[in-house]
UniProtKB/TrEMBL annotation:
Belongs to the YjdM family. Signal peptide: none annotated. Coiled coil: none annotated. Residues 45-111 form the Protein YjdM C-terminal domain. This is Alkylphosphonate utilization protein. Residues 3-32 form the Protein YjdM N-terminal domain. It comes from Vagococcus hydrophili. InterPro entries: YjdM, YjdM_C, YjdM_N.
């Protein structure tokens, strides 16, 4: 007998398989085996155009971004080199010339 994975949403052990999908009867979440293995290994970050970003990429800011505590915003067109991706709300860690260390959301940048 094979063991079925727990639900990724609610961690329920009462999952079952139906036509190639795993189903959780407690929260009604459905997922496939490929989806389960892809989610557990790596997260994917995309820029505003849908390009996949990776560590070390160079990006450009696509709109003026106000920064709390700073007198000037980060201007549209500012280029940022050597980004680092993190799994959080602001998913890009970088260092911007004139501002220092900064966290950005990927929806406000595009890949160079």
């Amino acid at each position: 007998m094979t063991t079925l994975p727990n639900c990724p949403n609610c961690e329920s052990a009462y999952t079952y398989e139906d036509r190639g999908l795993f189903v959780c009867p407690e929260c009604a979440h459905e997922w496939s085996q490929e989806q389960d293995s892809a989610e557990s290994t790596e997260f994917i970050v995309k820029d505003s155009n849908g390009n996949i970003l990776v560590d070390g990429d160079s990006i450009t800011v696509i709109k003026d971004l106000k920064v709390k505590g700073a007198s000037n915003p980060i201007k549209q067109g500012t280029k940022v080199k050597n980004i680092k991706l993190v799994d959080s709300d602001h998913n890009i860690d970088c260092k911007i010339d004139g501002f220092g260390p900064m966290k950005l959301k990927s929806e406000f940048v595009k890949k160079l």
